[in-house]
Amino acid sequence: MPQLFGRSAVYIDENNITSKNVAETAALVLSKNRENEIAEKYLWNYYKGDQPILNRIKSVRPEINNRIVENHALEIGTFKTGYLCGEPIQYVAANSDAGVSAGVAALNRLMESVSKDAKDRTLIEYQNVCGTSYRLCLPCKPTDDHPAPFELYTLDPWETAIAYSRGVERKKLLGICHYTDGSGINHITVYSDSMKWEIEGEKVVEEAHTYGEVPIYEYCANQARLGAFEPVIPLLDEINAIASNRMDAIEQFVQSFMKFINCEIDEETYKKFLAEGRIMVKSNPGVNADVDLITKELDQSQTQVAKDDAYNAVLTITGMPNRNGGSSTSDTGAAVIYRDGWASAESRAKDAETMMKPAERELLGFILRICRTVEGVPEEIGKLKITDITTKFTRRNYEDIQTKAQVLDLLLKNPKVHPLTAYQMCGALPDPESACKMGLGWFDEQNEKEAKALDEALKRGGEAEDV
Question: Is the separation of the CB atoms in 38 and 2 below 8 Å?
Fold first, then answer.
């Protein structure tokens, strides 16, 4: 089992990377990243259910050896992933300019054409399991079926590494992807901000590019690059051990040993006893003979207490909601939110958003540069600047929704408060600007209908007076 205390960033001395030293530099980066790769593969297999309990060895009564995996790692990973990106991650306009809104809408359509929502889900799943994840973005020629001038790739963390400089800036120097083919040959692709190298054995192929940056982006789950369930793996192993031992105890109780006191029984008589279910024993004068089962039943209530304690600790440490609803049924509103752990789940999700946004912003800047240089891309996108766009993680946030609706209603009734400010302040809507624009449009539409209906009514009234 590897040491699981988060992943370590790889740092190298900043120097001039050329085709002569790139193979040596790539080998150095991959060797430094080796511990990360081992841990990432272990965590991914653990997430899929390949856990230590499956290799359990039992020395006492080894024929009864249950290996039960209660895969709470899967529960934690899928919940965190679904809660953060159950709805597609959207780009929204950072201001109310009509041109910006049109450009952002066109950009979202391009993202939909490359299935960014599905790739975001895979990216965040890797991030929650391995502590970090990687995305590759490369330009391509747009077509009718693929109108985006770029393609996004989600890379396996254990086949990817990024090397940073040792300076204060922690500049991204190299991005590396590698794999070993069926013949045992290692293939390595290295990107710098101006070059791409393909390394196959001793062969190095060099190719210049004009990206202006390393097109591989790292999405860290947190500063330590810890996976969502990584800190509680000892507790998860304890739960597996309790479940396995409990099943062993049940089987051992059913298959209890027989105890013969002051009597002898040969093998043939014992087999006959097993077949017929009855046995006759004789005792010598003055000596009592007896046949009985050696049984000791496990205290299931105490075992359940230990298991529940471990599981509750897992939920607390990982910021998971408590799904048993607590012990009280009289609590309502915010009390339920805080008691059952949903407030903790929401705060962890917001923390994950904060960690993702720098990489997403870096990726978005690269995509906008591509869109400005390729023909056929909607003109509105080419005019966008990075400051015009905000990344929104949409969740069905119904926490204390009644109070938020009341705040919105109160602010909208104040003539000195702009409607957009009211929508932003209430905190009930994932995209306040779109909601405000839609609401104002609907409001104007209803006013026009009422005015038209009033004009028609007045016109009919005037015609009646003439008659």
Answer: yes
pLDDT confidence bin for 136, thresholds 50/70/90: very high
With residue 354 as reference, give the H or E element that holds it. helix 342-373
Instruction: Identify whether the C-beta of residue 133 lies closer than 8 Å to the C-beta of residue 414.
Output: no
Query: What is the signed CA dihedral for 121, 125, 127, 130, rounded to 10 degrees?
Result: -160
Question: What does the block give as tokens for 166?
Answer: 């040792």
Beta strands in 325-463 (DSSP E): 389-392
For all residues of the chain together, what is the average pLDDT?
85
CA 238 to chain centroid = 24
What's the Cα-to-Cα distance from 422 to each of 96, 408, 458, rounded to whole Å?
14, 6, 36
In tens, the pLDDT along 314-370 reads 999 999 988 665 555 555 555 555 556 788 888 888 899 999 999 999 999 999 999
Q: Which residues make Cβ contacts (< 8 Å) with residue 414, sequence separation at least 6?
A: 422
CA 63 – CA 335 distance, rounded (Å): 50
| Cβ proximity of 242 and 303 under 8 Å | yes
Least confident of 28-42, 124-138, 240-254: 240-254
d(CA 208, CA 196) in angstroms, rounded, equals: 6
Query: Side chain identity at 316, as an amino acid letter?
Result: T
The position carrying tokens 């304890």 is: 238
Cα maximum dimension of the chain:
132
Which residue reads 């929650």 in tokens? 128
Residues in CB range of 17: below 8 A, 6 or more apart: 25, 173, 174, 190, 192, 195
CB < 8 Å & 24+ apart, contacts of 78-81: 78/125, 79/320, 79/345, 80/124, 80/128, 80/228, 80/348, 80/349, 80/352, 81/121, 81/124, 81/125, 81/128
Residue type, 178: H
If phi > 0 it is left, if psi is from -120 to 50 it is alpha, else beta; for residue 341 that is: left
| DSSP assignment of 273-332 | HHHHS-------TT---EEEEE-----HHHHHHHHHHHHHHHHHHHTPPPTT--S-SS--
Q: What is the pLDDT of residue 418?
A: 87
φ, ψ at 195 (rounded to 5°): -135, 155
Instruction: Please give the backbone phi and psi of residue 298, each rounded to the nearest 5 degrees, phi first.
Output: -70, 140
